[in-house]
Design a protein that fits this description.
By secondary structure, the protein is of the alpha/beta class. It has helices at residues 10-22, 38-42, 45-61, 75-85, 91-99, 153-156, 173-184, 204-217, 298-312, 354-359, 389-392, 394-402, 406-409, 420-428; strands spanning 2-6, 27-32, 102-106, 109-113, 116-119, 122-125, 128-131, 135-137, 165-169, 188-193, 220-223, 227-231, 234-237, 242-244, 247-250, 254-256, 280-282, 285-287, 325-328, 334-338, 344-349, 367-373, 378-385. Helix content is 30%, strand content 24%.
């Protein structure tokens, strides 16, 4: 038996580790065209969150009631910290693969026929294929864009530059996070979003607080603005407006990396490769992570990897996407899990949680919202806006996944003073006739 993993990013690596915990002997080969460890490690999650940290700390001093005086940001030191965290050297990752008895083949792979890959001049046969090829920045069709030296997230996370005027095209998580970062380190940022609000896929109240925060930082947020064409120094809108820039950052989403897979006869939609509950895409073919489009997060790719490893080992498992958590690392931080559509909901303002008094003065707005199925009396979703919300909302990920009765959640003792008390208060306000 020979298993080939197409992609050595987070999902592919995690599959190797998961399978090796179940099977120490099956032949494994990983094919990777760039760095083992994937985009999240080098050009996305890790570098961006490092970049955001120091500006967030300095911004927090404005809410310390004068207890902290002075301080300034050094962008080059921030970039140095970023490059230490996201060191673009995968030698340790390669050594890890070797330690797991997995061969690494570098290069671009195409499927010659089912059971056979071609990587350059090399042919590589396989019995089972795991497609973990990830995603790439989706570039919109805008007149003149091809002639501009624009940035994607990759460029923005390797630069040593602080543009004087930065235009960010796209108001999703990447656009919002990087707009706030560059504004805080000295750029004048304009963020252009075609939709009528930022973060169009999450709770509107949460998105509104992020919008307020960006504007307070000085970001020029343009909503409902549609690009018509791009010149080397400006973006021209369909309404005739024109926005100058020194640098243009395109942050308009992601597309699945599915090129070269045609002979497999997979069902591939605009979202990605269609899979069943076991992540099977075809006979002896599985797809995991971003390439499926199910939930384009690193942690979901790792979850998919475990499901496929269990499936190959003969365990009866199904992927369950009801409680997928996500965090947007703006300031304020936004965390979401599950579905906030339907059901009944309640909201508790974070300003009424004692812990916030120990964090900042004046207090900034934030909230915790929970959504429940009134018939089953379990939670189906939640959203939180506030300091480190991605950490303390995780308890609700477990509650949703385990379908913990709300009566049990209300019997949990939250430590004082923590933001977890806000979870309890929001649960208490659900109109369930408990």
């Amino acid at each position: 038996m020979h298993i080939v993993v197409l992609g050595g990013g987070s999902s592919g690596e995690h599959f190797v580790g998961a399978l090796r915990r179940l099977d120490a002997d099956t032949k494994l080969t990983v094919v990777e065209r760039r760095l083992v460890g994937g985009e999240c490690s080098y050009y996305a999650c890790m570098p961006t969150k490092t970049m955001l940290r120091a500006p967030e700390l300095l911004a927090a001093t404005r809410h310390s009631d004068g207890a902290i005086v002075g301080g300034a940001l050094d962008p080059q030191r921030i970039y140095a910290w970023r490059d230490w965290v996201a060191e673009r050297d995968d030698s340790s990752q390669v050594e890890w693969l070797v330690s797991k008895n997995a061969e690494l083949v570098r290069g671009d792979a195409v499927v010659a026929e089912p059971g056979l890959l071609r990587i350059g001049d090399r042919e590589l046969s396989y019995d089972r294929l795991v497609i973990a090829s990830g995603s790439s920045p989706a570039i919109p069709q805008i007149e003149g864009l091809d002639a501009v030296d624009y940035w994607t997230n990759v460029d923005a996370t390797v630069t040593l530059e602080v543009p004087r005027q930065l235009l960010v095209l796209g108001g999703g998580p990447v656009g919002c996070e990087l707009a706030q970062f560059f504004q805080r380190v000295g750029s004048q940022v304009t963020l252009v979003q075609g939709d009528k609000r930022l973060l169009s896929r999450i709770d509107a109240d949460a998105a509104a607080l992020v919008d307020d925060a960006l504007r307070e930082d000085g970001v020029d947020v343009r909503l409902g603005a549609t690009a018509q064409r791009v010149t080397p120094t400006s973006l021209v809108l369909t309404d005739g407006g024109e926005i100058p820039f020194d640098r243009l950052l395109v942050a308009t989403g992601r597309r699945p990396n599915v090129d070269g897979l045609e002979p497999l006869g997979l069902e591939i939609t605009r979202r990605g490769i269609e899979v069943d509950e076991r992540l099977r895409a075809a006979e002896d073919v599985w797809a995991i992570g971003d390439v499926t489009g199910l939930a384009p997060f690193t942690h979901v790719g790792k979850y998919h990897a475990r499901i496929v490893a269990y499936d190959m080992a003969g365990r009866d498992v199904r992927a369950d996407h009801r409680a997928v958590p996500a965090t947007i690392f703006t300031d304020p931080q936004v965390a979401v899990v599950g579905s906030t559509e339907g059901g009944i909901s309640s909201t508790w303002q974070l300003t009424s949680v004692p812990r916030l008094s120990t964090y900042e003065r004046p207090k900034r707005p934030g909230f915790i919202k929970v959504v429940a199925d009134p018939e089953r009396r379990v939670l189906t979703g939640a959203v939180a806006v506030g300091p480190d919300s991605g950490e303390w909302l995780q308890q609700l990920t477990l509650a949703i996944r385990a379908e913990t009765p709300i009566e049990v959640l209300l019997d949990v003792i939250p430590p004082y003073p923590t933001f977890s008390e806000g979870v309890f208060f929001a649960l208490r306000e659900l109109k369930l006739d408990l």
